[in-house]
Specification:
mainly alpha; 57% helix
Length: 87
């Protein structure tokens, strides 16, 4: 038999608390900055001399953004599914 360790794909050091915090911070900052930049670019379309849109168009855009934002916020909330039912 070989004396080489088996490759399982699991790297324990990726799951330490500090590694998980660092990874979250790095990725969340990058993704948040991309979103903020995209929102800034979307705001540029508010220039009525360059773009023609209706109030309905604007409402549909922000409804879509609000819906997705509420969905994503829900993923960050702590769930209390483990609580037992009591009368």
């Amino acid at each position: 038999m070989d004396n080489q360790p088996q490759k399982t794909g699991y790297k324990k050091e990726l799951y330490t608390e500090s590694a998980r915090k660092d990874r979250f911070k790095r990725i969340a900052e990058r993704r948040t900055n991309k979103i903020l930049n995209s929102l800034r670019l979307l705001g540029n379309t508010g220039n009525k001399t360059l773009y023609l849109y209706t109030e309905d168009d604007v409402q549909r855009i922000f409804n879509a953004i609000d819906t997705k934002l509420a969905e994503i916020k829900g993923r960050f909330k702590t769930r209390k599914d483990d609580e037992k039912f009591r009368l």
